[in-house]
């Protein structure tokens, strides 16, 4: 008997339950980095400066349910707002599913382990600067948050030898 397909392969983003929607977040923290948008050109620049609510080790928001009380301009991502947002990384599960792509091997829903996003080198862990100590954002412009990550390859499973 075939296992049922996972929800992200059978449902549109708009059909997902709140729990399914929330579980799509891989916990990379890239969306929690500050971005600069230049008024004159509309160009976008990524920084390595993290929101003060981001735990730089776990890449989780310290106040997720009430974050907008502390950071009023924090975006609430929805299926409707997704098409308006041009700064999510190409590795983002919401972006990938919206484009009909599968989740990456390191995504916790695929790997079964919430730490694979870190061990694969996708998250901001070890690369983000807390906004309280960063100084001018212009001094922290980087390109990697907006690029597809170069991820570490998954470790091959150790298969039993034919003699076992």
Describe the structure.
By secondary structure, the protein is α+β, with helices and mostly antiparallel strands. The protein has one domain (13-146). The chain has helices at 7-10, 18-23, 67-70, 79-82, 93-98, 108-111, 116-119, 131-134, and strands at residues 33-37, 44-50, 54-55, 60-61, 129-130, 141-142. The strands form two sheets. Strands 1, 2, 5 and 6 form a four-stranded mixed beta sheet that branches. Strands 3-4 form a two-stranded antiparallel sheet.
Number of strands: 6
The whole-angstrom Rg is 18 Å
Our count of domains comes out at 1
Number of helices: 8
**What structural class do you assign from the helix and strand content?**
alpha+beta
Tell me the span between the first and last alpha carbons: 27 Å
Low-confidence parts: 158-164
What is the helical fraction, as a range of percent? 10-25%
Oligomer: single chain
The largest sheet, given as strand count, sense and whether it forms a barrel, is: 4 strands, mixed
Determine the mean pLDDT: 90
Overall outline: globular
Roughly what fraction of the amino acids lie in strands? Answer: 5-15%
| N-to-C series of helices and strands | HHEEEEHHHHHEHE
Topology of helices and strands:
Layout: H1 7-10, H2 18-23, E1 33-37, E2 44-50, E3 54-55, E4 60-61, H3 67-70, H4 79-82, H5 93-98, H6 108-111, H7 116-119, E5 129-130, H8 131-134, E6 141-142
């Amino acid at each position: 008997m075939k296992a049922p397909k996972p929800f992200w392969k059978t449902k549109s983003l708009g059909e997902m339950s709140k729990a399914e929607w929330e579980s799509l977040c891989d916990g990379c923290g890239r969306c929690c980095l500050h971005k600069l948008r230049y008024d004159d050109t509309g160009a976008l620049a990524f920084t390595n400066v993290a929101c003060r609510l981001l735990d730089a080790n776990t890449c989780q928001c310290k106040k997720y349910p009430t974050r907008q009380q502390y950071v009023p301009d924090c975006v609430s991502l929805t299926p409707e707002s997704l098409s308006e947002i041009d700064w999510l990384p190409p590795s983002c599960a919401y972006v990938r599913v919206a484009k009909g792509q599968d989740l990456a091997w390191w995504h916790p829903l695929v790997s079964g382990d919430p730490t694979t996003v870190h061990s694969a080198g996708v998250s901001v862990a070890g690369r983000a600067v807390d906004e309280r100590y960063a100084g001018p954002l212009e001094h922290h412009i980087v390109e990697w948050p907006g690029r597809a990550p170069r991820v570490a390859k998954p470790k091959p499973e150790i298969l039993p030898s034919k003699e076992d």
